Amino acid sequence: VLRQAYEGSTFVRVVAPSPPRLSDVVHTNECRMSVHDAAPGRVVVFSALDNLVKGAAGQAVQNLNLALGLPEDAGLVRVRA
User: pTM above the 0.70 mark?
Assistant: First the structure.
């Protein structure tokens, strides 16, 4: 379900089978997520993001780009592994 929800997203990537690592997203505006089975009827969602980029400055640039009608990723680093 998460994969479908974020399909085509510029900065959110659902990864598997292992949880995302901070080293995967450091110095990027990307958020990586994974879902894992837990107790019956429950799942655990892990996410990793660089809060200095995605959580602050990068998010501000991304929002400004959208407000000005620019490409969402203009001026932002995108890393796809």
Answer: yes
